Amino acid sequence: MKEAVVIKNVTKKYRMYRSKKEQITDLLIPGKAGKNFNAIEDISLTAYQGDVIGFVGINGSGKSTLSNIIGGIVPPTTGEIEKNGEVHVIAINAGLNNELTGIENIEFKGLLMGFSREKIKEVTPEIIKFSELGDFIYQPVKKYSSGMKSKLGFAISVTADPDILVIDEALSVGDQTFTNKSLDKMNEFKEEGKTIFFVSHNLGQVKSFCKKVAWIEGGRLKKFGPTEEVMSEYEDFISHYKSLSKEKQEAFRNELAERRQKSE
Ligand SMILES: Nc1ncnc2c1ncn2[C@@H]1O[C@H](COP(=O)(O)OP(=O)(O)OP(=O)(O)O)[C@@H](O)[C@H]1O
Fold first, then answer.
1. Which of 5, 22, 23, 89 has its CA 20 to 30 A from that of 136?
2. What is the pLDDT, as a whole number, of residue 145?
3. Which domain CATH number covers 215?
4. Residue 101 DSSP class
5. Does residue 259 register a pLDDT over 90?
6. Is residue 118 part of a domain?
7. Is 153 a pocket residue for ligand 1 (Cβ < 6 Å)?
8. Is residue 18 part of a domain?
9. How many CB atoms are closer than 10 A to CB 260?
């Protein structure tokens, strides 16, 4: 089987500050203030062509950081990522320019995706139709709700016909009709053998759509394998986590966060 994306020992470090003062101090005297924080830590994972991989994990575990690295939006601090094909990211707001109107964004993103002016003209009506935005397409994107942005972003990206697709919570904000339509489109991509990464808190969608699942916990890859195998364990974990008091949930998250701060 052909490798589509190979992630090798990827870590993303951010500097964390408790105040603006700390941030300025660190800028003037590097290392004097602030802490390193590993948003993701030493993740290795291979996706083969046609793999549909779900990323699950509680808030802040590192799913978006990893998907942004795969999408080329964020560079890793250390480690390597190899991609065999064009990658497109569909996320709430991804790549949309807030100052431009919907229609201008279609043109702008179209050019970024390497489309000719003629091709953009040809696909624009399809995008408008898919996005269901009607006359809102002439409004600046800053006036859109997150659901509307997601619809436009999704409609533009699916036109690109990418080899590798990263879908980050893009289906969580729209209405049910749009979600179903988008799921149909994603299933088409899946049947065509495209490689898909799917970030979602909707475990039902992950279970029905993904062939494999990567469970991220505290920035690390806790488990990666066939959907059924990983999800049965993850669902046990999540129902236990949800049964904890707010304080205990916070203590659990703090414990993970502390480890991510200490690790260099
Ligand atoms: N630009 C940034 N600067 C500093 N810290 C960041 C940055 N981006 C992400 N982080 C931190 O990295 C950690 C992982 O964030 P990430 O958004 O990847 O998690 P997630 O699993 O996608 O969360 P959620 O489910 O809430 O969307 C979080 O603690 C977050 O605060």
1. 89
2. 87
3. 3.40.50.300
4. B
5. no
6. no
7. no
8. no
9. 22
The whole-number average pLDDT for the span 164-176 is 80
> To the nearest whole percent, how much of the chain has pLDDT over 90?
62
* Residue with tokens 């602030």, as numbered in its chain: 34
Q: Is 200 in the pocket of ligand 1 (CB under 6 A)?
A: no
Cβ 34 under 6 angstroms from ligand 1: no
Domain membership flag for residue 216: yes
For residue 101, pLDDT over 50 is answered with: yes
Beta carbons of 212 and 224 less than 8 angstroms apart: yes
Atom 30 of ligand 1, residue of closest alpha carbon: 60
Q: What is the pTM of this model?
A: 0.88
Which numbered atom of ligand 1 lies nearest the CA of 257? 29
Nearest CA to ligand 1 atom 27: 59
| pLDDT at residue 262, as a whole number | 62
Supply the residue whose CA is at minimum distance from atom 28 of ligand 1: 60
Residue nearest to atom 14 of ligand 1 (CA): 62
Which residue carries 């533009």 as its tokens?
156
Is 166 inside any structural domain?
yes
User: Which of 177, 185, 131, 184 shows the shortest CA–CA distance to 156?
Assistant: 131
Instruction: Please count the structural domains in the chain.
Output: 1
Q: Ligand 1: does its nearest atom lie under 6 Å from the Cβ of 14?
A: yes
Which residue stretches of 32-145 are H helix? 63-70, 102-112, 117-131
Residue range(s) defining the domain that contains residue 175: 53-77+162-262
